[in-house]
Amino acid sequence: MKLYFARHAECEANVQQIISNRGQQYGLTPEGYSQAHILAEHFIDLDLAGIFSSPLRCALETAREVAALTGTPVAVADGLREVDCGILEGRGDDEAWYELGKAFRQWLEFGKLQYAIPEGESALQVQERFRALVQTIARAGSAESYLFISHSGTLRLGLPALLTWLPADRFASQFLDDGEYVLVEALDGEFTSLEWRGEKINKEDI
To answer: How far apart are CA 130 and CA 118, in angstroms?
Structure first.
């Protein structure tokens, strides 16, 4: 089974540098629609069995662009939504971004997965909902391909929770650009490889 995980295309919140991880206020920019179309072109000949999308507007608009070109149905999946940043939601000031960066350092550099921004989620909570969704699909045992449209934060936390055999710092300093995707292969419910930016890593080689 091939599982593709994509970050949504550029949205207005990205451009305005607003932390907007809950609502439906910010859609794709014109550049974002172009990125989503390019993303869709990668999947024209792959015969996707389904597209799962975060409920946030930017992700849904990205997913619908892919669906329009591939004819693949889209299902909304709460497990793919962005990390809830609690009291930082809706802010774009330097202090807010500092606190968000601090949270990701706690999670990805220091392994303090229970840390949470006040009124927000911990990394463990994000990983649990992400992993539950993906494992349900992977355990179906099908040889089909699926696309998951999510967000930078959720993917940086969620993918290491699936690929526990990868070096711990794999996603600490690197993350997906707008409209970029990675490929994870699964066999009998086990996640066996990661392909990203031209590099493929197999579990058996670690």
So the answer is: 21
Q: Considering the chain, what percentage of its residues have pLDDT values greater than 90?
A: 82
Domain boundaries, the chain: 2-205
| Whether CATH 3.40.50.1240 fits 2-205 | yes
Query: How far is residue 165's CA from residue 59's CA, in Å, rounded to a whole number?
Result: 28
Phi, psi dihedral angles at 166 (to 5 degrees): -75, 155
Task: Give dist(CA 136, CA 190) in Å, integer.
Answer: 11
Rounded to whole angstroms, what are the CA distances from 27 to 59, 60, 181? 8, 9, 19
Residue 96, Ramachandran bin (φ over 0: left; ψ between -120 and 50: alpha; else beta): alpha
Write out pLDDT tens, residues 66-89.
999 999 999 999 999 999 999 999
Question: Is a pLDDT exceeding 80 seen at residue 195?
Answer: yes
Please indicate, yes or no, whether the overall pTM of this predicted structure exceeds 0.85: yes
Cβ atoms 65, 34 nearer than 8 A:
no
Confidence of residue 25 (pLDDT cuts 50, 70, 90): confident
